[in-house]
Design goal:
With 225 residues, the chain is mainly β. It is built from two helices and 16 strands. The protein folds into two domains: 92 residues; 102 residues, no CATH class. Helix content is 12%, strand content 45%.
Length: 225
């Protein structure tokens, strides 16, 4: 009986070690890729660099957009945490050996250990990343700015066109967040909220949202040509 008990204990310890192994290998810090999904959405609003660290069950995810998740384990069930604001957070599998998923009240963060795909964000390699013509009818760089209407930056955009004068633009803002603009019959809407206004000059759309986001969308982006 004692030998059987010892054997079962050894097996249990071995199984626990195997489960813990993927995380323990990142016990100090690892450069990673974080895909950010707003709650209820199945499309990432941002794909950004981040760092992941874990020590004695405590986890920290430091994102390049300035957001920090400082997680403390709670309870007996593995994967349950409180963040730095005492809000509940949950760790989930689902990415296999590629990473981990963290669920928060307003968003989910998919942490991938392999951050090499972020190199495509280098403008010298792929200026309209993360948008490609494999997924969109066209891609482009649009004049844009945040905070003031200087329009001195370039925002990558993916364009999906419908009927003439109809298109949906996915724009990556300078802060790494995504903005969707839908054009139809001379009107613009956005599912992302905000006070949306626009003017048309020489056929181009001059767009401002909350007097904080500024874009120029050429007519050719909407209608092609």
């Amino acid at each position: 009986m004692i030998l059987n008990f010892i054997a079962k204990a050894v097996i249990a310890v071995s199984v626990m070690a195997a489960i813990a192994c993927p995380l323990e290998s990142y016990a100090d810090m690892v450069n990673a890729r974080c895909d950010i999904y707003p709650a209820g959405e199945d499309k990432a609003s941002a794909v950004i660099p981040c760092t992941f660290s874990q020590r004695q069950g405590y986890i920290m995810i430091d994102r390049s957009d300035g957001v920090l998740h400082d997680l403390s384990p709670i309870g007996d069930a593995p994967g349950n945490f409180l963040d730095q604001n005492k809000a509940l957070a949950y760790r989930q599998s689902g990415l296999g050996e590629n990473g981990l998923i963290f669920r928060f009240s307003d968003e989910s963060v998919f942490v991938y250990w392999d951050a090499s795909s972020l190199s495509v964000l280098n403008p010298q390699d792929h200026p309209t990343a993360p948008y490609t013509t494999a997924e969109y009818d066209a891609t482009t760089l649009l004049p844009c700015s945040l905070g003031e209407d200087s329009l001195d930056q370039d925002c990558p955009a993916g364009i999906s066109r419908g009927n003439p004068g109809s298109a949906s633009l996915s724009l990556m803002k300078p802060n790494g967040e995504e903005r969707i603009l839908n054009f139809d019959s001379g009107e613009i809407t956005t599912p992302d909220g905000g006070d949306l206004n626009w003017d048309i000059k020489d056929g181009d759309w001059y767009i401002r949202i909350d007097n904080q986001e500024f874009y120029i969308v050429p007519d050719a982006a909407v209608n092609g040509g």
